[in-house]
Amino acid sequence: MRHVALSLALSSALLLTLPATAAEPTTDAAPADSTPDNSPLVPAETDGRSGAGGDASEQSSLPLEDIQALAQVFERIKQAYVDDVDDKTLLRNAMRGMLEGLDPHSNYLDEDAFRTLHEMTEGAFGGIGIEVGQEDNQLMVISPIDDTPASKAGLQPRDLIIEIDGKSTDGMSLEEAVDLMRGDPGSKIDLTLLREGADAPIEVSLERANIQSASVNSRMLSPGYGYLRISQFQENTAQEASDAIASLKKQAGDNGLSGVVLDLRNNPGGLLDGAVNVADLFLDHGLVVYTRGRLKDSDMQFEANAETALPDTPMVVLINGGSASAAEIVAGALQDHHRAVVLGTESFGKGSVQSVMPLDDNTGIKLTTALYYTPGGRSIQAEGIEPDVTVQRGRLELEKSGFEIREANLRGHLQNARGEQEDDKAALPDSPIAADDYQLGEALNLLRGINVFQQPGMRQHDNASPDDRASGNTLTDSGNGASKNDTAPSDDAPDDTNP
């Protein structure tokens, strides 16, 4: 699959970017030859190195015959191509070809693309708000960005764009498709999509916009249970997430938060330091991520600080096929540290690091320089994060039940001994999210189950005799004679949810 930086999408979101012109990550990197105590040594065959042999500083002689062939191609184009092409265009195309031939994420950035890349990492860019790529020469949606024309129009990951304003994308280059989708804010664009499971092509009309994309939003799902959505990783994402957590704590009141859902679905990624700092909000020690490349500067590792925003609150992380790059760093770190249960479907599998290197003329190159690894030594490249609990996207429809006869309907039924007390209890309001978002509803149910499991004691039967209660010989629900304190440690709760 091949991707480009484009003004209509957060291209850097799918790229784990280390911009040379931006500030260095705030977390100090350890020397390249050191390995954290709690991280495995990376085997030589999977350490992300090129295997080209020798140090990168070793100079090899240029292949003279190939250089001569390149010069001949250049001259033939100048002499015989149907249109006159200037030298600058040919040289820029040669640079673009060299980079794009390496892997799907390395490419040449002309002035517009270079400027757009920096605008997008700051969260402001123009277009329809969509990440696109090519797979098998087909133009495919990687991920729509929240609260943009694309997401509001219902575009979904893996939608194939077969027409742009009536023009077929068959055989169209990615750059040409991007140019067609760019335009002035307020202008219209029509897309024709093919979607898996749909019986016919889908026609979508959008209006281009100037997009100021907030990367974080939050709300309460149910009393005591918070929801934190991160749509992309920008420069200020960690601070926005910290503020959102503080707001959720305030809304939860004196009882505090009983659980939090971190939603990373359709998050195409973003900046490395943004991902590290977000993961650090939920971890109080240990490795977050490390990278390995050919250059010593590419070998880095990032540790969590002791300070954490949610030290003990149970967490569920939601991921899907649109979760990529920096989103996979966060999910992988929380999963490896057993800090959260990861729920959903397998992530995208983009585990390479791109360094943005400026050139002298307001242009630059984006070059893959390393692979990143989770704290447990897993490379996500082309593999993705496997969820602990697999839940496919769907919609829950509740059956309408008819009249049911229960004990309370029978004539002369006995009253509950504590009926009046039970009537005084306020019922927990139901949340409609299970019907609107099945995966989110399952995440909330999982958090509630974890909290039940972590309760310090087991319920006592109310049918114990007064003598038993006086002597302290109360029965337990387990029926095996265990005391009310014989419960599993709370730290084991996430492991028990593994499929």
UniProtKB/TrEMBL annotation:
GO terms for molecular function: endopeptidase activity; serine-type peptidase activity. Keywords: Hydrolase, Protease, Serine protease, Signal. SMART domains: PDZ, TSPc. One of its GO terms (biological process) is signal transduction. CDD domains: cpPDZ_CPP-like, Peptidase_S41_CPP. Residues 459-470 have a biased composition (Basic and acidic residues). Residues 25-40 have a biased composition (Low complexity). Residues 25-62, 457-499 are annotated as: Disordered. InterPro entries: ClpP/crotonase-like_dom_sf, CtpA/B_N, PDZ, PDZ_6, PDZ_sf, Peptidase_S41A, Tail-specific_protease. Residues 114-182 form the PDZ domain. Residues 471-484 have a biased composition (Polar residues). It comes from the Bacteria. One of its GO terms (cellular component) is outer membrane-bounded periplasmic space. The keyword Signal applies. Residues 1-22 form the signal peptide. Belongs to the peptidase S41A family. This is Peptidase S41. It comes from Kushneria marisflavi.
